[in-house]
């Protein structure tokens, strides 16, 4: 049965493409678009762009698979993926869809009151850090910092390891340690004082997310309009 499905899948894809082409020729923008994106890419960048696009084109259907690993969009039969620019393969077309952003080092004030504040990234090795398990390679993420052109990576230790952004933030809010997360994901907590940022001068901005897709694939009118809708114009 699996062999039959594998054999027929390309045929179904071709039939769907032909149906979409017919709709396009009639001036009706419709079709299905499959995208894979990480949780932060979706919430911070992709979803705010998708919402008005879908309202403008009610006959377009978008499926988003939330996956923090480096998904192969070709074998996964995705139309596109969203990643940081440095993670996009060179044989893909990459379209920038968001502004620069920063990572930040944060913890609850109660944690810093008890354990003190790190003055340099190297001081983090003596703190209880909330770590991230990398989904693709399986190792722990080394925290990356840069200041005045100098880049360093710090291997941190701690009681907690997660593969989920929200869980790391919740643990930090509970006073369980220091976490390293996208600044926009904790902006409200920083504003309210529930979290405190340190080492800000070591967290320089870097280019944001890109929508990427195979260069040789024929695109529907719906996908072409999606690219135009999400393109960053800042």
TrEMBL record:
Biological processes annotated in GO: DNA-templated transcription
UniProt cross-references to Gene3D superfamilies, sorted A to Z: 3.40.190.290
GO terms assigned for molecular function: DNA-binding transcription factor activity; sequence-specific DNA binding
Annotated LysR substrate-binding domain residues: 28-231
Superkingdom of origin organism: Bacteria
InterPro entries the record matches: LysR-type_TF_proteobact-type (IPR058163), LysR_subst-bd (IPR005119)
Transmembrane portions of the chain: none
SUPFAM superfamilies reported in the protein's UniProt record: Periplasmic binding protein-like II
Annotated family: Belongs to the LysR transcriptional regulatory family.
Name used for this protein in its record: D-malate degradation protein R
Lineage: Bacteria, Pseudomonadati, Pseudomonadota, Gammaproteobacteria, Enterobacterales
